Amino acid sequence: MSDEQKAYLQALVDVRSWHRWQIGQAVGDVRTIQAHEMAIAWIEEVIAAKRRHAVEDEAERQRVRAANSQIGGPHT
């Protein structure tokens, strides 16, 4: 995973944590709690997608490296 991908994921995790904290502060306010829960669910979907993309990117880089090593091409 690239440093950029790691930083993006960390930002998402931080925002998710903020929403969780907001839920703790929203004593009895059901609409606020539901809004933050929806935001957390969406953020978790984005995190999962970003992690899948990172795995796919790494697999592609390894595939390219393997192909290049067989033909003597540049290693990326």
What topology does this entry show?
Blueprint: H1 3-25, H2 30-71
Question: Can you walk me through this structure?
Answer:
The protein is mainly alpha-helical and 76 residues long. Helices cover 86% and strands 0% of the residues. The protein has 2 helices and no strands. The protein has helices at 3-25, 30-71. α1 (3-25) packs antiparallel against α2 (30-71). The protein starts with a helix and ends in a 5-residue tail after the last helix. The model has no long low-confidence stretch (mean pLDDT 91).
Count of individual beta strands: 0
In this structure, how is the largest beta sheet organized?
none
How much of the sequence lies in strands comes to: under 5%
Which shape, going by the Cα principal axes?
rod-shaped
User: pLDDT below 50 for ≥5 consecutive residues: which ranges?
Assistant: none
Q: What is the number of helices? A: 2
Ends: how far apart? 14 Å
Reading the helices and strands in chain order gives HH
Helix content: over 70%
In round numbers, the mean pLDDT is 91
- The helix/strand class is mainly alpha
The gyration radius over C-alpha positions equals 19 Å
